[in-house]
Structures are given as structure tokens and as C-alpha cells.
Amino acid sequence: MEQFTDPSPSEIPRVAIVTGAAQGIGRDIAIRLADDGLDVAVNDIPTKGEQLQELVAEIRLKNRRAMAVLADVSSEDEVIAMIARVVDELGGVDMVANVGVLLVKPLLDTSVDEWERTISINVRGTMLCYKYAAKQMIKQGRGGRIIGNAMFSAYSTSKFGIRGLTQSHEFAPYNITVNAYAPGIINTAMGNCPEVISSLVSYLAKPEAHFITGQTIMVNGGFLME
């Protein structure tokens, strides 16, 4: 297996894009990465714009650069535009973390539209973020970190798709690692629960995690083990 290194000079600012960052786990990840010294671009859909601006203000109080990018990650054009905006304003992309939508319904009660929306956001959206973030990281020539969210019928199907994407090693020659976290039911109203996820993402983003790739790490209190 090829060994990964982090060739980024320490003086180059590291920039993270966190999708689905308006609330919950995504919000906590964005704050943790800012605490770790990364500049952060936070993304969500247009209806979450006010929440994103509040998050941007909070991150800036930590003396980190921050910006909000409204985009639907299931749209290729919007993902391309999102990456381009972040590069233009923050100077690059060194890490991307993806968050998906949760559909908790029995299969018999799930409509085709609900199924398609879940697959579209969680699988296609993750693929697009992986693809265009990796293209930018390769262009920059200093590697990077890609970290997705992988974990009820449509939801489980979509998340197994993300696990498959994560296990690809095609970015290895460019010093880009790809990993995923698989959370159980996380009570985001309780301070310590999303912190478990954000601390894992924080570690996977660090230079010393360069030899961890292609992994889906379960974070569920032992509810399910592999």
C-alpha cells in the first residue's frame, strides 16, 4: 500500500469546506476545524443562509477566515461554482467534509421522490464533492483530506454507496486521503454527542493521519460493530 505524506508547507493556510454546516454535526465540525487553525467555508442550501451567516461570524471571532457558500451539492454546476468561489476567496481547498440528509421511514411508506432525493444528495452529492475537491487538490499539488458521512432503506442504500466511493484509492498518487465516518443516532442537542464526530474529523484532517485512508469509521457507542 502506498504511504501517504502531507507535503503542505506549514505556512500555507489550510482551507476546509464543510457541507451541510448550518446545524448539527456539520456545524460542530466547522467550529472544530476553525479551532484547529483551518479557514472554513461553510455550505448549505439557500433556506439555511441566515444560520450559515451566524456560523461565519462565530468562526471569525476565532480569528479564522470564513465564508458561507449557498449551494445544492446534488447539482454539478453548483458544486463546481462552490469550489471555485472558495478557491477565489480563501486561496485553495485542503479538506472537504460531507454531510447528508436522513430519511427515517419504512420502505413501504417511502415515496419514489423521497428515495430519489436521498440518493441524489447523499450519493451524487458526495461523489461531486469528492470529484471536484480532488481536482482542485491535485491542481494545487499539496494533497488533501476528503472525509465523508457514511451510515432505514433509502438512507442505508445511499450510505453504502458512499462507503464504496470512500474505498477507492485512485487519489493516492496525489497524497489525498479519503475516509468516512458512520455515526449512529447523534443527539445534536446534547453538547458532547456531535463533539465525538467533530473530534474524529479533526484527527483525520491532521498531517499525522496520512496513513489512514479508504476507511469508514463507525461512531455509534457500540450499537453496531464490524
From TrEMBL:
InterPro entries: NAD(P)-bd_dom_sf, SDR_fam. Pfam families: adh_short (PF00106). GO terms for biological process: fatty acid biosynthetic process. Gene3D superfamilies: NAD(P)-binding Rossmann-like Domain. GO terms for molecular function: oxidoreductase activity, acting on the CH-OH group of donors, NAD or NADP as acceptor; quinone binding. It comes from the Eukaryota. PANTHER family: 3-OXOACYL-(ACYL-CARRIER-PROTEIN) REDUCTASE (PTHR42760:SF121), SHORT-CHAIN DEHYDROGENASES/REDUCTASES FAMILY MEMBER (PTHR42760). Belongs to the short-chain dehydrogenases/reductases (SDR) family. This is NAD(P)-binding protein. It comes from Wolfiporia cocos (strain MD-104) (Brown rot fungus).
